[in-house]
Specification:
The complex is a heterodimer.
Chain A (H helix, E strand, L loop, with lengths): L1 H9 L23 E6 L5 H11 L9 E7 H7 L1 E2 L6 H4 L2 E6 L2 H13 L3 E9 L7 H14 L3 E6 L10 E8 L15 E9 L5 E6 L6 E2 L7 H11 L1
Chain B lengths: L4 E5 L3 H10 L6 E7 L2 E7 L1 H5 L8 H7 L4 E4 L2 H14 L6 E5 L3 E5 L9 H15 L5 E5 L2 H10 L4 E2 L5 H4 L10 H9 L5 H6 L2 H7 L10 H9 L16 E10 L2 H22 L1 E12 L4 E12 L2 H9 L11 E13 L9 H5 L4 H12 L4 E6 L9 E4 L20 E13 L6 E6 L2 E14 L13 E8 L4 E7 L11 E7 L2
Parallel strand pairs in B: 2-4, 7-8
Antiparallel strand pairs in B: 1-6, 1-7, 2-3, 5-6, 9-12, 10-11, 10-12, 13-14, 15-16, 15-20, 16-17, 17-18, 18-19, 19-20
Classes of the chains: A alpha/beta, B alpha+beta.
């Protein structure tokens, strides 16, 4: 059985990327998946994009809890989740796990994926610890597919090493649109999100805007979505 | 039917408990309590009393009277625990007993005395059995708890009161269980005996004590309780047996696989026991007796009441890795000191839903068994406007308390640093927003900002040197969004030049 799963899981790789695969767009992926978001620890964009992607396309009436696992270094670099700043419909459902080491964080992530009462799991691991190698990532991917709980793993200040995640993003904060009533203030968060490796989509770069309720692609003046994909090379 | 209450007073409980543990001595001896003004005597033995020392004096004064007075610190918590055990033991004279702190017991003996040959026989039996435990005692039986208490403390020993108040009239007013301030008032009024109170018109007393509702300070309420005119609820002591299962092993076991088997059996036994009581375990203790006389113990707490043997055995298995069996384990015992009601529940019709994955409580148990109970938490809102105090970390399944909604005028960051980090700033104008700042070695140019949001310190929690904070939500030239604040104002008299801090990372 394991052989069949792995064969079918690797099958899309044999296709050449970009010819017949649909371009990613918000709300397209309904199936739970294992995703990774690479981001700098000096900004909140990684966790924010992971949350936005986890909520993307999900119903509003979800009432199950969700898990946020952080290892000690990630807490030191980027702080802990702050309840008043979370989206209102997620505030009362968060369960937070402080793991001393990356090994403990991986254990907590896997236990969370096995739990049927969780809507999704967010993980935050800083750097490239030895424990988080390809085998560990593969374990997590299989657990996601087996139990149907999505996992979004935020990698703070990490190299893009080998991983079996189904979607791999790189996130950066981008200047937001001025709000209508106070143009001097920061507006709705905007992230420059680069999908650099995905199983079901060709790579590309998007400017994503969202306050967790609805994620949408932001089109700047004079740029078509195709031009953005080309622009990604310049920025990345 | 008239109730019959037995009051047991153990006047020398503390000192006798000490003597039981440490042995009697003929020399003057006293127990101490620490007070704000120094050590004070709380209990004395007979020799000390004969030497002229009185209870309640300061140690220095007592030493002046009796220089060779030996002392030891008292143990009020231990006395209380002893009294609780004694209350259970005293249920041999009646089905229901209550403690009367600090040194008394009340037992409801209604309908019981004929088993002891009448009430006098019951008192005889109680006095003998208490004396056999080397406890000085004074006993009384009366229709109400108040009357029994009054007679045992201030009446003749082994007194029986049936009807009327003739025996009570001669007792001092202190027998009404009043506090010292009220006793002083009554003494100044010239009311020294309980009988004197009935000589005064009731409306006059009611008018004088109209503002005190506490029975301890109102002699009329106490008098009514004494005579049984108003009910006086008492809190009974009930023994709760701890669910406990154990296995004595024919051969001492030294191997882990055998121990796991024993653990599975114990968990199964425990679950059957709990199921019979409609309870679920919250805390479990496993004790393993080794052949060489040592006892190993492991303790486990569950996030929700559980009766799943596989789950219990699995959680314990994670805690037995560092076990040293030595020459072998001969007795294993599992007890559940903390249980909660858990009714039998219908199994899910759909088998697949049960079998697939784990429940939330089981997941939390596994996480906290490996990572420690402090590692798994959930944030709860707290009524405070200081940002770091606006949330607290609570156990994961604790229900959220209902509170007033927060005003959402101002954005809050997604993540908050554990400790706000100082930033070096370059001002555009001396008292406003900085133009750029340096954080963790990187320079950020401020492009847009919202603020200030002024948050004053909470004077009811903090000292007078805490400074107000001006918060700004900012975005730098590359779009990174932060939450920064200035601690204090220039010239507010609470420190030098205000410093800037970065506290949160926005989405």
């Amino acid at each position: 059985m394991t052989v069949i799963t792995s064969l079918s899981a690797f099958a899309p790789l044999s296709r050449t990327a970009g010819d017949s695969l649909p371009r990613w767009r918000p709300g397209l992926d309904a199936a739970p998946l294992h995703g990774e978001v690479f981001a700098s620890a000096a900004e909140g964009s990684g966790a924010a994009l992971a949350l936005a992607l986890a909520l993307d396309g999900k119903g509003q009436e979800e009432e199950r809890g969700w898990l946020w696992v952080q290892d000690a270094r990630a807490i030191k670099l980027g702080g802990r989740p702050y309840q008043p700043g979370l989206p209102p419909r997620l505030r009362h459902r968060l369960i937070h796990v402080t793991a001393k080491s990356p090994e403990d964080a991986l254990f907590a992530l896997e236990e969370g994926l096995r739990c049927r009462d969780l809507a999704f799991v967010i993980g935050e691991v800083a750097g490239n610890p030895k424990a988080l190698n390809f085998t560990a990532a593969r374990r997590l991917s299989l657990a996601v597919e087996r139990h149907g709980v999505p996992l979004w793993l935020v990698r703070l200040d990490a190299e893009r090493e080998l991983s079996s995640a189904r979607q791999r993003w790189a996130a950066r904060s981008a200047p937001s649109q001025p709000p209508r009533w106070n143009p001097a203030a920061p507006g709705t968060p905007v992230w420059q999100a680069e999908l650099f490796r995905a199983r079901a989509h060709p790579p590309g770069t998007w400017l994503l805007e969202g306050d967790f309720a609805n994620l949408q692609v932001q089109h700047r003046q004079g740029q078509s979505p195709v031009a953005e994909a080309g622009e990604s090379r310049l920025h990345a | 039917m008239i109730r019959r209450i037995l009051s047991i007073w153990l006047p020398d409980l503390a000192i006798e408990r000490w003597q039981l543990a440490e042995g009697e001595s003929a020399a003057p001896f006293a127990l101490l309590a620490e007070t704000a003004h120094g050590p004070r005597l709380t209990a004395l033995n007979a020799a000390a009393r004969q030497a002229g020392v009185q209870g309640g004096t300061m140690l220095a004064d007592a030493r002046a009277i009796c220089p060779d007075l030996a002392v030891a610190p008292g143990d009020p918590a231990g006395d209380r625990a002893f009294l609780e055990r004694l209350a259970i033991w005293a249920q041999r004279w009646g089905p229901w007993s209550a403690i009367d702190p600090p040194d008394g017991l009340l037992v409801d003996v209604t309908g019981v005395p004929h088993l002891f040959g009448g009430e006098a026989g019951l008192l005889e039996d109680a006095a003998l059995r208490l004396a056999a435990r080397r406890l000085t005692n004074r006993l009384a039986i009366a229709p109400t708890a108040g009357a029994a208490w009054a007679l045992s403390h201030y009446g003749p020993d082994r007194e029986l009161l049936h009807e009327g108040t003739a025996q009570l009239d001669d007792l001092p007013v202190a027998a009404l269980r009043l506090d010292s301030a009220t006793l002083l008032v009554l003494r100044r009024l010239g009311l020294k005996r309980i009988g004197d109170l009935s000589g005064v018109a009731r409306p006059a007393l009611a008018r004088r004590f109209r503002n005190t509702r506490a029975p301890l300070a109102n002699p009329l309420i106490r008098l009514d309780q004494l005579l049984g005119r108003v009910p006086e609820p008492l809190l009974p002591v009930i023994a709760v047996p701890v669910p406990l299962v154990q296995r004595r092993l024919m051969e001492p076991i030294r191997h882990r696989s055998l121990l796991d088997q024993v653990l599975d059996d114990l968990a199964g036994d425990m679950v059957r026991l709990l199921e019979g009581q409609a309870q679920g375990a919250r805390r479990l203790e496993l004790a393993l007796w080794k052949v060489d006389g040592e006892v190993l113990s492991r303790r486990l707490e569950l996030a929700a009441a559980s009766r799943d043997p596989g789950h219990i055995a699995r959680l314990f298995a994670g805690k037995l890795d560092d076990l040293d069996a030595g020459f072998g384990i001969e007795l294993a015992r599992l007890s559940a000191p903390w249980c909660e009601p858990l009714a039998l529940s219908q199994a899910d019709f759909e088998q697949a839903a049960e079998a697939h994955g784990t429940s939330l409580a089981a997941c939390i148990d596994r996480l906290s068994a490996r990572l420690g109970p402090e590692a798994v938490r959930r944030p709860l809102a707290v009524a405070s406007h200081v940002p770091e105090r606006a949330q607290r970390w609570a156990p994961p399944l604790e229900p959220e308390r209902v509170m007033q909604g927060q005003l959402a005028f101002h954005g809050r960051p997604l993540k908050l640093l554990d400790r706000a980090e100082p930033i070096a700033v370059l001002y555009a104008s001396p008292d406003g927003l900085p133009r750029r700042f340096r954080w963790r070695g990187q320079v950020h140019e401020i492009a847009r900002a919202e603020g200030p949001e002024r948050i004053a310190p909470e004077w009811w929690r903090e000292g007078s040197t805490a400074r107000l904070r001006d918060y700004y939500r900012i975005e730098d030239d590359q779009g990174r969004r932060y939450w920064i604040y200035r601690n204090g104002l220039a010239g507010d008299g609470r420190g030098g030049v205000p410093e800037w801090f970065l506290q949160g990372l926005c989405a």
